[in-house]
Amino acid sequence: MFWPIVAVFPFVVAAATAAAVHASVSTRLPDPLATHFDDTGRADDFSSTHGFLTGTLLALVALGAVFALLSRVPKLATAAPWVIATGYAVAAGLGYALCLTLLGNAGAADASAVRLPLWQVLLTLPVALLAGVLGHLLAGVAPRPPRRPTGDAPRLDVPAGTAAGWSRTISSPPLMTLGVLVLCGGLATGILGIWISCVILVLSGVVSLAVTSVRVTVDRRGLTLAPTLPQAFGIRFRRIGPDRVVEATSRRVDCFGEFGGWGYRVRGRGSGLVLRSGEGIAVRLTSGREFVVTVDDAATAAALLNTYADRARSRQGG
Question: Which of 7, 206, 225, 298 has a beta carbon 3.0–4.6 Å from 250's, enabling a disulfide?
């Protein structure tokens, strides 16, 4: 099950980022540190440098373990994506607050003189919310048995010794909008000098934008998914060779009902690239898993893929 790894990831990133920030400013930190601030930004509570860093890092590790365990509880299986999303929000919020505290104290001769602008504190909320959205996108939905193709899968009549190809482009305007907003948020935090949030948000935005437009191709090499924009560089998300295909069919895909949202999703016994609800290719693999991709003219693509899968089995049998 991939969920525990996804659940732990943000806490590891938050702890590593905080440790890196501490290493970069450790020689400029007062002892004790200003660790709490009132509504005017004035420091009103203090802690030793070592105790503050150790306590917060241990808290991140403990919370990561808790959310990893929660993601494996069978009774919470249907809510696991929301559990993971909550974990991402908590990790990002705590990590941001920890880094903000360290950077705010850097260079201060006396911790009582440290001031923290309210607007910087208020940024904790959008950072946590964006991280929660990212966590939910990565988590997908609860595992459920994949739908199995029924009946005889179609084939295309491609004469032996000849080759045929099929290709379509799919895109998701909502996912593109989300990616642009996250990217703009990252650039805005960079302008404000909050570099940690800037890097995280910019990378998240770039990843989101990379899957907003994808070229789906079926040919003698099998099923290939490649991002449209950097396609000239030969980058691809996934390729499924015809020798790994048991059967391919077309069916209607409900991106929220089956996968919990848009993007590249993983579930218990399958995965998929779903950028919208509607027509899609469902490929049953030799591993027993199912891969789904939403795309127009899926019936033609499935029939051609079955033809190449038959050829691959014939070569192996011969």
Answer: 298
What would the pLDDT profile of 254-288 be if each residue is shown by its tens digit?
877 777 777 777 776 778 888 888 899 999 998 88
Q: In what order do the strands lie in the sheet with 166-171?
A: 166-171, 213-219, 222-227, 238-240
Q: Of 276, 282, 280, 277, which is closest to residue 295 (Cα–Cα)?
A: 280
Cα 80 from Cα 67, distance rounded (Å)? 10
pLDDT in tens, 86-107: 888 888 888 888 888 888 888 8
